[in-house]
């Protein structure tokens, strides 16, 4: 028997759209000192990883680092080691990036940019 998983992708899309529509409010709640769980409760958001990713994205956009209960600092700080830079997969949740994607890397004085290559 083949299981229909189309609703899962739709549910994820709806959740992602809901988070995108509430980015301003997510930021306001984080600045008020709300935890990840409190933000989820206030906005009725179900996907914790997507909320965390939104918070990481907002902090990067705003150039601010907030201490948010429930947001693991290790997952939002890529680490440079002898083997290179490791970006935790949790940071990429909700971005559309998938395992196996390839990227072009641009290094500037301001930082590093990853641009997803189109599939072959």
Overall description:
The longest helix is centred in the N-terminal third of the chain and has 16 residues, at 6-21. The protein is of the alpha+beta class and 120 residues long. It is 43% helix and 15% strand. It has a two-stranded antiparallel sheet. Strands 3-4 form a two-stranded antiparallel ribbon. The chain has 5 helices and 4 strands. α2 (23-31) packs across α4 (48-62). It is globular and about 40 Å long.
**Total of DSSP H or I helical runs spanning 4+ residues:** 5
Helix content: 40-55%
Structural class: alpha+beta
Biggest beta sheet attributes: 2 strands, antiparallel
Name the poorly predicted regions: none
The helix-strand sequence is HHHHHEEEE
Average pLDDT confidence is: 82
Please state the overall shape, judged from the principal axes of the Cα atoms: globular
Distance between the termini: 32 Å
Describe the protein's topology.
Blueprint lengths: L5 H16 L1 H9 L4 H8 L4 H15 L10 H4 L2 E3 L2 E3 L16 E6 L2 E6 L4
Antiparallel strand pairs: 1-2, 3-4
Helix pairs in contact: 2-4
Which structural traits does this protein have?
120 residues, alpha+beta, two-stranded antiparallel sheet, 5 helices, 4 strands, 43% helix, globular
Task: Write a short abstract of this structure.
By secondary structure, this protein is of the alpha+beta class. The protein has five helices and four strands; from the N terminus they run H-H-H-H-H-E-E-E-E. A hairpin with a 2-residue loop joins strand 1 (79-81) and strand 2.
């Amino acid at each position: 028997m083949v299981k229909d998983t189309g609703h899962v992708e739709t549910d994820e899309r709806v959740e992602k759209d809901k988070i995108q529509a509430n980015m301003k409010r997510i930021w306001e709640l984080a600045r008020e000192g709300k935890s990840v769980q409190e933000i989820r409760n206030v906005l009725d958001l179900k996907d914790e990883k997507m909320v965390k990713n939104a918070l990481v994205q907002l902090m990067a956009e705003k150039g601010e680092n907030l201490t948010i209960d429930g947001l693991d600092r290790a997952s939002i700080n890529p680490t440079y080691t002898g083997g290179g830079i490791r970006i935790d997969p949790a940071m990429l949740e909700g971005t559309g990036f998938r395992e196996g994607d390839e990227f072009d890397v641009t290094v500037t004085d301001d930082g590093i940019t990853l641009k997803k290559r189109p599939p072959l």
